[in-house]
């Protein structure tokens, strides 16, 4: 009976509308796997079931996925007679002794490649965790009121630089580089990364680290992002550590269960920064170019799947608060507001020079 129940749960999980759930885009954008595995349907289905288990149905049992891709038996049997498909090779020595002898050097090559792939993935996660932990500590130093001004400004810029570096490294790990250095190849590569959360935070960090303005308010999204990455890494890799269980487990569990809350806080801070930059145009520290580019980035955040749900919610709240007052006291603003709405609702690819 339990098997039938789990089978029904898997069918329900497979039919779930992931694309219209903003949490799925955010969850998938933070999965660190090689590009060749990210394009496989069995890998995507596995992480969809894990997402469904975390956010929808905790009772769903998700079986571990083998590195060689044995979750697709049809592919394995069709490729068992060919030595050019190393993905199915690791399963052969367990089933037959003759197959390991007939495959010859191909089996030994694959057996050595699997640990290297695992180690490489571990190294990527460790590097990203280390830099995010560094960013988190620096961001806390930057916003702490008793820190000297020069040290606070340096920590502010270093935390933004660290965020830009981790975002760029994650983009390179997941998407690599353009296949060729011509306009068409670069354009296709750029279109594949423009709507990702890593690209958005890379541009976000560059905008503020290169500005003469020092807006500590801009560190709220950086803190939320780094805290989420650090908590996930600690919970996955140090859950058996005594120090972790004693001092960090409650915090990490709270962070993982409140990812949506952190994303909502970040989106409110990002929209608020847009209005702060508009107000800064009336001061001697104004930067028209930065303000214009940041509002273009806000437009991208409004449309990108990873951030669209949260930003659209924020703008809906603003609209419900502002529109009644405008209609009542300043109806002459209806025309320019409608023009701005049409621009805001248009596509975002042209924002970053692509047609």
Automatic annotation (TrEMBL):
GO terms for biological process: endoplasmic reticulum tubular network organization; membrane organization. It is found in: Membrane. It comes from Carnegiea gigantea. Signal peptide: none annotated. The keyword Transmembrane helix applies. This is Transmembrane protein 33 homolog. The chain crosses the membrane at residues 127-147, 159-178, 199-223, 264-284. One of its GO terms (cellular component) is membrane. Residues 70-84, 93-115 have a biased composition (Low complexity). Residues 63-115 are annotated as: Disordered. Its main location: membrane. Pfam families: TMEM33_Pom33. It is a multi-pass membrane protein. Belongs to the PER33/POM33 family. Keywords: Membrane, Transmembrane, Transmembrane helix. InterPro entries: PER33/POM33_regulator, TMEM33/Pom33.
């Amino acid at each position: 009976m339990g098997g039938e129940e789990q089978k029904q749960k898997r069918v329900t999980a497979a039919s779930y509308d992931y694309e219209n759930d903003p949490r799925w885009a955010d969850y998938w954008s933070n999965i660190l796997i090689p590009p060749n595995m990210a394009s496989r349907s069995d890998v995507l289905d596995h992480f969809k079931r894990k997402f469904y288990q975390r956010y929808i149905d905790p009772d769903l049992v998700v079986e571990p996925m083998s590195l060689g891709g044995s979750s697709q038996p049809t592919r394995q049997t069709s490729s068992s007679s060919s030595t050019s498909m190393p993905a199915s090779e690791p399963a052969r020595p367990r089933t037959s002794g003759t197959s390991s002898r007939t495959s010859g050097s191909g089996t030994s090559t694959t057996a050595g490649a699997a640990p290297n792939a695992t180690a490489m993935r571990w190294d990527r996660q460790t590097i990203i965790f280390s830099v995010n932990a560094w960013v988190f500590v620096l961001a806390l130093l930057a916003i702490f009121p008793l820190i000297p001004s020069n040290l606070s400004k340096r920590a502010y810029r270093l935390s933004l630089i660290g965020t830009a570096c981790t975002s760029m490294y994650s983009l390179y790990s997941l998407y690599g580089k353009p296949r060729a250095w011509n306009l068409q190849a670069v354009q296709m590569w750029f279109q594949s990364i423009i709507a990702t959360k890593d690209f958005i935070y890379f541009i976000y960090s560059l905008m503020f680290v290169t500005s003469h303005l020092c807006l500590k308010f801009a560190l709220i999204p950086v803190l939320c992002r780094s805290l989420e990455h650090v908590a996930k890494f600690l919970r996955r890799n140090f859950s058996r550590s005594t120090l972790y269980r004693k001092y960090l487990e409650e915090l990490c569990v709270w962070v993982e269960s409140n990812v949506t809350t952190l994303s909502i806080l970040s989106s409110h801070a990002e929209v608020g920064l847009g209005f702060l930059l508009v107000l800064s145009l009336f001061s001697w520290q104004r930067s028209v170019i930065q303000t214009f580019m940041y509002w273009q980035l806000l437009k991208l955040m409004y449309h990108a799947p990873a951030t669209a749900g949260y930003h659209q919610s924020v703008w809906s709240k603003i609209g419900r608060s502002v529109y009644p007052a405008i209609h009542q006291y300043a109806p002459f603003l209806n025309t320019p507001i409608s023009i701005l709405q049409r621009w805001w609702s248009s596509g975002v690819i042209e924002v970053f020079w692509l047609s």
